[in-house]
Amino acid sequence: MIVRSRSPLRLGLAGGGTDLSPYCDKYGGCILNATIDMYAHCTIEMDTSKSGVSFYAQDLDEQYHSKLTGLLPIDEKLVLHKAVYNRVIADYNEGNPLPVTVYTHCDAPPGSGLGSSSTMVVTMISAYQKLLNLPLGEYDIARLAYDIERNDCQLSGGKQDQYATTFGGFNFMEFYDENRVLVNPLRIRRSIINELESQLILYFTGVSRSSAKIIDDQVKNTNDNTEKPLQAMHEVKQLAFEMKERLLHSDVSGMSQLFYDSWLAKKATSPSISTPLIEQIEDRAMSAGAKSLKISGAGGGGFMMIFVDPLKRIAVETALADLEGEIHSFNFTQEGTQSWKV
């Protein structure tokens, strides 16, 4: 049997970081995000005549092989692949190993700021769900992915990515204590989506980054009640509410201004969010006519979103042309994770 799945990456439009514990546990977090037509892909082949399990991360040029011996050690490479496999056989296959070959690849590199790691976990769960006909709804899949990353793999991070890719589309998400999450889908007119796509440049800085240091800073500031960064986090959350209102009222110009306010507030939550390269990109883009910009994801590198008048788009792209980064074309998508049998 062969199954495939794909799950969309997301742009964090506002509120990023407020989905982190302990901030969302103490104060409640809010995030506005939207999925785009860049994906994490998975194919699973199950052959009962085989006596082993194999994982191939084709974009990373990494692979892992094991005999059918039960739970796999979660160490070294392909940790996410092993952890998802372990949880599936432990929770849904009575501990019995599965003779599967799993192939994955992602349209964006790790550390992209588009939620690629969490998206990969969700797309693997989605494939196993189809393979084994598992009774998992959207909230179940997202919650399971979060639990695998944070508890089984002990990886730092927030909650938005798992829910964004599972549900898909434009969503306003609320995060509370005890892992309570509410996903509010937003119905956005096609004309507004078209205008957003015409005004947004998605620019890869050329630098992949680990979000762990930034996340650790934000967690420490919340725990210590460090006044300035904590106040900045409150502002980031408030701007998410305002960004949602602008979007629902078709105020793209207002969104652009809030974008920059959100970027300034985000930078104040951790000194690791901006870098000399990011400042250089910002200076180049703004000098060429960009209206505003911000990093998607934790910061430190990855993808940037740049708001620009469509008439000045070419000028901004030209101003960035000699840097090491690159522009990626994209469209917003309405579908979340999908899986199907071949």
What secondary-structure arrangement, pairings included, does this model have?
Blueprint: E1 2-14, H1 23-27, E2 29-46, E3 52-57, E4 62-67, H2 79-92, E5 100-106, H3 116-132, H4 138-152, H5 160-167, E6 170-175, E7 181-185, H6 190-199, E8 200-204, H7 212-223, H8 227-248, H9 252-267, H10 276-287, E9 290-295, E10 303-308, H11 313-320, E11 326-328, E12 338-341
Parallel strand pairs: 3-5
Antiparallel strand pairs: 1-2, 1-12, 2-5, 2-6, 3-4, 6-7, 8-10, 8-11, 9-10
Helix pairs in contact: 2-3, 2-4, 3-4, 3-5, 4-5, 8-9, 10-11
Beginning-to-end CA distance, first to last residue: 8 Å
Shape: globular
| CATH class wording of the largest domain | Alpha Beta
Helix content: 40-55%
Reported CATH architecture of the largest domain: 2-Layer Sandwich
What does this entry look like structurally?
- The protein is α+β, with helices and mostly antiparallel strands and 342 residues long.
- It has 2 domains: 2-188, Ribosomal Protein S5, domain 2; 190-328, GHMP kinase, C-terminal domain (Alpha-Beta Plaits).
- The protein has helices at 23-27, 79-92, 116-132, 138-152, 160-167, 190-199, 212-223, 227-248, 252-267, 276-287, 313-320; strands at residues 2-14, 29-46, 52-57, 62-67, 100-106, 170-175, 181-185, 200-204, 290-295, 303-308, 326-328, 338-341.
- Strands 1, 2, 3, 4, 5, 6, 7 and 12 form an 8-stranded mixed sheet that branches.
- Helix 8 (227-248) runs antiparallel to helix 9 and helix 10 packs antiparallel against helix 11 (313-320).
- The chain is globular, with a radius of gyration of 20 Å.
- The mean pLDDT is 92.
- Residues 248-320 form the GHMP kinase C-terminal domain.
- Residues 83-169 form the GHMP kinase N-terminal domain.
- This is Dehydrogenase.
